[in-house]
Every structure is written in structure tokens, then in C-alpha cells.
Amino acid sequence: MRKYDVIIVGGGLAGLECGAILSKKGMSVCILEQSGRTGGFFQPFFRNGKKIDTSIHYVGSLDEGMFLNNVFRYLDVWRDLDLVRLNKDGFEKIHISGKCYSYAMGHENFAQSLSADFPHMKNEIELYTKNLKETGINSLRSTLLGGGISSDAMGMLSVSAFEEIEKTITDTRLQQVLTGHSLIYSGERSMTPFYLHAITSNSYLEGAYRFRGGADRLTDAMTSRIREGGGVVRTKVRCTSIITDNKIVKGVKLDNGEVVEGKYVISTCHPAETLSLLGTDSDVRKVYRNRINSLKNSPGLFCLYLVMKPGAFPYLNENHYIFGDESHANHSPAPLKNGILASFQPPVDDPGFAEVVTLVREMEWREVERWSDTIVEMRGEEYREFKERVSNEMISLADSHLPGLKAAILNSSSASPLTFRDYLGTPQGSAYGLMKSFSSPLSTIIPPKTKVQNLYLAGQSLNFHGVMGVTVTSLLTCSAILGTNVLTEEAGISL
Q1: CB 404 within 8 A of CB 161
Q2: CA-CA distance, 321 to 338, in Å (whole number)?
Q3: Distance CA 8, CA 314 (A)
Q4: How far apart are CA 454 and CA 442, in angstroms?
Q5: Is residue 280 very low, low, confident or very high in pLDDT (cuts 50, 70, 90)?
Q6: Boundaries of CATH 3.50.50.60 in the chain?
Q7: Running DSSP on this structure, what letter comes out for residue 433?
């Protein structure tokens, strides 16, 4: 039986990034993925001959010299990507009360664009932009170079995102505009730290791009690099337990009874799921298990995928965040919570017209919990009617701000938090893993190194959300195993 240096449970972005880094450093790697292919949230599906991205709509920090650009070049996957840079003068469009506001790319451009709509707030916008840039860059730097959460980063984690914004920005509508894209980091007034808002928002100002031909081109390229480096990637295998002996990891056991041995194990599962794979001999204390199990998961998403009639609706090279309940919008505190995201996949066949449009809204688990005991395609008529009602509401809202969209739809399909739970194994269909809290940052930031010797964690539940968050935690996890800072000493990347 072959024994690997590293066993990685989960073949999503976190597992593949860890595998690519450690394989590049000469370690023997085995990735175990329960679905039929790698990619996790990057996995596509097909309708009417169109490849549809399930979850990844755009990614930031991809301009030359920016963080993700550097990391993807280090992992040798950049050459496999076909990227489309979004509209520099308005990559985000925020629709509130019948008016549209733009986020422009680049810090100076961003501040100037918003100041045109809010001339009386020009100085405040410039101050906010400066704070956003400094906090975003410094938080990322202190986290990566400090090997986790440094004292500087901790100070940023303990500040409320929305209270910090309101300290600088006194105009209520501008507060709503600046948090209009909070869906992409699950912004919540009672929990979200400014650290999370700043890193996420700043990354898009550093270069927001879409993937042409499918976001899975990124994860497929990583899978190829791992295999080219001698690594093993196995699909349709499910880990049922993590094996320990005398509080030291020895390997994992699969659902077919097979034991895979390794010196190190990295679990990219949700931390609560990882703990469920550990037996009592691992010596993980009950109080720690209870703490992890008590943490709040981020909400899920309801995604409506629209295949468009050929030549019927123009391709829009920006994202549209559209809010309803307009009569109450002027009095609602940020972030507004009644909106949808309309995102357009870059066309493959006809560059001028939309081929696939995805509408996204946040969805709490309680909205679908009554069907939690069902499985895919067998949830009943009531569930079908629920999805149809939600879909029609989203289409109507989108069409009210993007006229003609409804008439241009050829066909549609949808995914609820139940779908993501069943296909990707995310607890309650959570889109971004564990929520981070400014009031208890030490409880909601999970270190990659566990109390079990040679067992490590990775994934967006650890530090912060999205592609940026996953990549940061992957670097931290690999640095902990290698005993050296991957970012600066191995990749040669400076921040």
C-alpha cells in the first residue's frame, strides 16, 4: 500500500491549491473528492448546449502584479485561463429606487465616479477609498506574512463593517451604494467585520474579471498541474473517517473500506464536518467540538440560470445589483437585503449578445428547511412551486431594471441551498462557510493547524470568503506544513 506525504480531503479550490503548492514542492499528494469531478463551487453544468457556471461569477485582484494574478502565475495555471476584464468605468452597477450607481475599477477612478453622483460627499468618498485600500492591503499582508491573524489584523477584525462606513459616510443612500454588493461576502450588520468588507471590495478594485469558457478552466488546470507533478486525484470516493493513533494522524478511511495512509491530512471540509470524521481517540475536546458546532453558517444562495435566445439581449460586461421595495429603500440601513445580482457569462459564440445570465439572491436555510429530508429531483410539487415563485419574482425584478430580459429567456433552471448541500456537501447549503464576527473574532477565525498532530484545515470557513479567502487559507495551510512562508519565500511574491 502506497503511503502519501499529504492526503487532501476535498477537491474544490482549497484542496487543489494546496495540492498544487505541495506537489510543486516535491511532496507526494493524494486528493480525494466525493463528486464525479474536481472543482467544488467551480463545477459547471450544461443546458441547451451551453456550459453554465454554478457559483463563480467574477473574481478580483487579477490585474498585473495583483495578488491572485501572482498566485495563479506561481501555480502555472495562468496560461490556461481565458479572462475577460469587466467594464473599468462601471464593473458593478447598483440599482436603488430607480437610479443606477457605478463602481469603477481602480481606486482613483472609483472615488471620482462616485463623487460625480454624490458631489457633496467628495472628501468623504476619498477618505473611505483610502481606508478601504489601506485596510484591504494591510489586512491581507498582516494575515499572510504573520502566518495567520496578527495583532494588526486582529484590530481590523474587531471593527464593524457598517459602523466603520457610517463613521466616514453620513449620506444614507451612499452607505447603501457602498454596501450594495454585500451579497458576495454575506454582509450582515450584526456580524461582518470591516476587515472582510475591505479585503473583498478592494480586491475587485484591483482587477475584476470573468472566466470565458467556464470558471472550471481554473480548477481543471490545477488538477492537471497536480497530476503532471506526480500527484494523484481521485473522484467518486468519500472519506468516512480520519484515522489517528496516539493523537497523530495516520490517514483516512473511505466509504468502500479502503484505508489511505499519509503523514499529513488536510481537510477542506467545513470544520464541523471535519470534527465529525474524527473519533474519540483523537483527543479533540468536547468543548471545542461544541464551540465549532455552535458557530453560525453564512446564508445560502438561490441561483437562477437563464439560457437566452440567440441575439435577443445584449451582453453586459458588468454586474448588476438590483434592489426592490423601493418605497422603503430611503429609510433602510445598510446593507440592503432585498436585492438580486444579475451576472452575465462572457459569450463564446456571439460576442455582442448574452448567452447565459445568472440571477442570484441570498436565501436563508429556514426558507427551504421544510424539504431538508428530501433529495435532488424528489422534493415534491410544493418545492417545485416554491422555486417557480422565487424565480418569477427574481425575473420580474431584473426585467424592471434591465428591460427586455424576460422576453429574451429561452429556458431556465435553478438551484437552492438544498441543491448546494446535496451536490457539494455544504452544511445548510451555506455559500461562504462560517460567518465572521467583529464582536468575537477569535471564535470565528479558525487556524489551519489543529490540536491533532499533522491534521490541517483549509477552505473559506477559516479566514474569509470567496476565491481570495480560499487562496489565502491555502497559502497559510501550506506554509504551516512546509515550515516556511509560501508567499514570500517560495513564490517570491511581495505584498
Answers
A1: no
A2: 10
A3: 43
A4: 22
A5: confident
A6: 3-82+212-295+431-490
A7: S
List C-alpha distances in Å: 350 to 56, 208, 311. Answer: 21, 22, 8
Amino acid identity, position 474 = S
pTM over cut 0.85: yes
Options 3.30.40.10, 3.50.50.60, 3.90.1170.50, 3.90.180.10; CATH for 3-82+212-295+431-490 is 3.50.50.60
Q: Which helix (H) or strand (E) holds 102?
A: strand 99-103
> In the structure grid, which three cell numbers stand for residue 60, read together?
478580483
Grid coordinates representing 319?
A: 454586474
> What is the rounded CA–CA span in Å between residue 28 and residue 46?
34
Q: Give the CA angle between residues 128, 340, 420 to the nearest 5°.
A: 110
Distances (CA, A) of 466 to 59, 65, 207, 371, 423: 9, 20, 15, 27, 18
Cβ–Cβ < 8 Å for 253, 243: yes
pLDDT digits (tens, 9 = 90+) for 211-265: 999 999 999 999 999 999 999 999 999 999 999 998 899 999 999 999 999 999 9
- DSSP for 198-247, please give it: HHHHHHHHT--EEETT-THHHHHHHHHHHHHTT-EEEES--EEEEEEETT
